[in-house]
Design goal:
By secondary structure, the protein is α+β, with helices and mostly antiparallel strands. It has one domain. Helices cover 31% and strands 20% of the residues. The chain has a three-stranded antiparallel beta sheet with strand order 1-2-3, covered by helices on one side. The protein is globular and about 40 Å long. The relative contact order is 0.20.
């Protein structure tokens, strides 16, 4: 059975079908837009959040679990799973130095002042390895 599967996959490759590589390499899991609004600054218990990573996790919980969505918020299938959202708080998003002041503003204020963030989430399988951001206003 295993040999037959390998032969079929090999034949498909010879016919020009692009088959996804099976690898444990890191890959882009999702890219999405987060619009950090006032409600994203507090957890479900009403406690104000002070970490950028936790704020991003709360934004995704608000979007997927509580249905709280802001103008630029985008859907992504990865964070519809609670187990994946739980990983965000433990990952410090990579923030380029020129975005540092923006991130400080987002964390210290009640809103991002009309700016939104594009997040790139990388991982292996169901494990997030890193998050990077791009900022637009």
């Amino acid at each position: 059975m295993k040999i037959r599967l390998i032969l079929v996959l090999g034949a498909l490759g010879l016919l020009g079908f692009n088959l996804p590589a099976i690898s444990a390499e890191e890959r882009l899991l999702t890219k999405y837009v987060a619009d950090i609004g006032p409600g994203d600054h507090y957890n479900s218990g009403g406690k104000q959040l002070s970490s950028f990573a936790v704020l991003i996790a709360q934004d995704r919980a608000n979007y997927h679990r509580f249905g709280i969505r802001h103008e630029h918020d985008g859907y992504n299938p990865v964070f519809s799973q609670r187990s994946m959202r739980a990983q965000v708080g433990s990952k410090v998003p990579k923030v380029e130095s020129y975005f540092g002041e923006f991130v400080k503003h987002v964390v210290s204020s009640d809103g991002a002042g009309g700016a939104y963030i594009i997040l790139y989430v990388y991982g292996r399988g169901n494990r997030i390895t890193r998050i990077s951001i791009d900022v637009h206003s």
